[in-house]
Amino acid sequence: MAVVEAMEAAAGRFRGCLVGALMGDCLGAPFEGESQTSRSVLNSYFKRLCDPDIKVPYKQYTDDTAMTRCVAVSLIKEKKFNGTDMAKRFVKEYYEEPGRGYGSNVVDVFAALRATKFADVCVPAAMQFGGRGSYGNGGAMRVAPVALFCHAATDQDVTTMAKNSALLTHANRLGYNGAVLQCLAVLEALRTPPNQLDVAKFLQCLTEKMKRVETLGEDEILDKGQKEFEYTSLLSHVAGLLDRGDAVSCQQVEEELGVNIIASESVPTAIYSFLRATNPIPNIEAENAFVRTIHYAIGLGGDTDTIASMAGSIAGAYYGIENVPEGLQRHCEGLEDALHQADQLFELVTSKQISTT
Ligand code: AR6
Ligand code: MG
User: Fold this and answer.
1) Is the model's pLDDT at 142 over the cut of 60?
2) How confident is the model at residue 224 (pLDDT cuts 50, 70, 90)?
3) Is residue 355 part of a domain?
4) Could you tell me the residue range of the domain that residue 332 belongs to?
5) What is the 86 CA–ligand 2 centroid distance (Å)?
6) 224 falls within a domain
7) Quick one: pLDDT at residue 352?
8) CA distances from 326 to 5, 16, 65, 165 (A)
9) Which residue minimizes the CA distance to atom 2 of ligand 1?
10) pLDDT (tens digit, 9 = 90+) per residue, 293-334?
11) What is the mean pLDDT of residues 282-291?
12) Count of domains for the chain
């Protein structure tokens, strides 16, 4: 019985992760690009959504989820990372539904991939921004299925797969390392036993991993002004802000971590949101820590859908689907698919019929 319960709990975390990513995107999207939203406005927003008598139209998902779904399906069908298959899925998805709010430059990558018939799927991304590559958060926003797929993999294999999945569109080191950090954060949450999250340890663990990831490789170059250990140092900044507890305002988070579409100004913010929301936050009414995470991330303003989606995937991986209110789930377009993909990934991972190397 204990084994069955443990399996159910683990499956619930896979579901929580993908539904958390979906929910952050769907519920955060109406606020994208706005400045901070007051907590009382968001309290009403969440209360209204949870009211069973209120029938509101679906909250539609955006490019974050469109691409996350492609990553999930590619891993499920291929049972390993296959860059050509994944790139083809991104391109097909984009041309079928181009209006999902894609980043302004990533669409050039899709066009070039199609024009070059996927000859070398990393080349179009490498040519972006005069050969420097994109450091947008598009690689990080879609990486959650990689973390699930790599549930039992080594740090090295997780890092490589997260990086390779990002390189299809994001060749700048800040772009792909942002995806690696987000992936490691989801995985750390997934592997932390319930009720045993130690915020300092969580950050320490990510910091040690990112130090290794960010040690400059022979084939890597730093853009002018870029630091070698950018994310490592941002993580220590996250720790410093968490130490200051409720004294930290949304304005300070925006100024010190950022709320932008750039990976280095959004991935650490998502991690901060998850960790900050483990405790009650003044004027946020939600007693449920998962809901609090999404509520807090949306309230920061800026790239709300993506930051809430990344924070939601980390939180969902930790708290599990049983802590994600059904009243909120039902509003998200694509909920059934997210649940199904989570179940398929869980089955694959537990059956060990996959390759993570
Ligand atoms: N130099 C200058 N600006 C850059 C660079 C660079 N090397 N790299 C990125 N940017 P993109 P994404 C800026 O187009 O990452 C959606 O709203 C530039 O302004 O690669 O997939 C999602 O919800 C560029 O247009 O797309 C996410 O929030 C922008 O970063 C977001 O877009 C985004 O990079 C994901 O966008
Ligand atoms: Mg966004």
Assistant:
1) yes
2) confident
3) no
4) 9-215+229-348
5) 20
6) no
7) 77
8) 21, 11, 19, 31
9) 129
10) 999 999 999 999 999 999 999 999 999 999 999 999 999 999
11) 97
12) 1
Cα(313) to centroid(ligand 1), Å: 21
Ligand 1 pocket mutation pick from 134, 135, 137 by most atoms within 8 angstroms of CB: 134
Return the residue whose CA atom lies nearest to atom 21 of ligand 1: 138
**Bridge partners (DSSP) listed for residue 136:** 262
The best mutation among 105, 137, 264 to test binding of ligand 1, ranked by most ligand atoms within 8 Å of the C-beta, falls on 105
Task: Measure 205 CA to ligand 1 centroid, in angstroms.
Answer: 28
From the CA of 106, which ligand is nearest? Answer: 1
Q: Is the CB of 103 under 6 A from ligand 1?
A: yes
CB of 78 closer than 8 Å to CB of 149: no
Evaluate whether residue 223 is within a structural domain.
no
Question: Using a 6 Å cutoff on CB, does residue 262 contact ligand 1?
Answer: yes
Query: DSSP alpha helices (H): ranges in the chain?
Result: 2-28, 39-50, 63-78, 83-96, 106-115, 123-126, 128-131, 144-149, 155-167, 173-191, 199-214, 230-243, 250-256, 267-276, 289-299, 304-319, 326-329, 335-351
Residue 127 alpha carbon to ligand 1 centre in Å: 14
- Determine the atom of ligand 1 nearest the C-alpha atom of 108: 14
353: pLDDT confidence band, cut at 50, 70 and 90?
A: confident
- Is residue 2 in some structural domain? no
Q: What is the DSSP secondary-structure string of 234-294?
A: HHHHHHHHHHTGGG--HHHHHHHT--SSBGGGTHHHHHHHHHHTTS--TT----SHHHHHH
C-alpha 342 – ligand 2 centre gap (Å)? 22
pLDDT at 49: 93
CATH number, domain of 294, equals 1.10.4080.10
pLDDT at residue number 55: 81
